[in-house]
Amino acid sequence: MLFYYKNGKKVLNKVLYNIKITIFASEIKSESLLAGKILSMSN
User: Fold this and answer.
1) Residue 17 predicted with pLDDT over 90
2) Domain of life, per the record (predicted)?
3) Domain locations in the chain?
4) For residue 18, with 0-12 CB atoms within 10 Å meaning exposed, 13-18 middle and 19 or more buried, which class applies?
């Protein structure tokens, strides 16, 4: 039982880690797009 629990926790951590990276990456993309728009407006 403990073995399954430990493995489940590992998988869950991996999934959460991947979700964090995905959110982080999309935030960076949208921020750089926003910065690009502002820069092109000011020029």
Assistant:
1) yes
2) Bacteria
3) 1-43
4) exposed
